[in-house]
Amino acid sequence: KTLMVDYSNLDALKMTEIGSDKIAVIDTKEGKLEKLVSVGKVPHPGRGANFVDPQFGPVWATGHLGDETISLIGTDPEKHPDNAWKVVRTLKGLGGGSL
Hints:
With 99 residues, the protein is an all-beta fold. The protein contains no helices and 7 strands. Strands 4-5-6-7 form a 4-stranded antiparallel beta sheet, with no helix packed on it. A 3-stranded antiparallel beta sheet has the order 1-2-3, with no helix packed on it.
């Protein structure tokens, strides 16, 4: 069950579940699950970072509590539909848990 909160200026809300290797992308306007994205071991439940990747366009990055990788997930379904809501790049970090 997904409980919605009114974040009226956001198009999508990214969420994680502790113990999972998935990130749920939720369409907050429709209140529906958009996609489950498979990532590294136990994605960090924090906010991550948003930036524009020079190759893949707008992305959201999150580290993992269970490994040292950082997943970059495409976040622009209108201008970059081939990259939207999937891992477009995985970076190796210095340790699990944060960016």
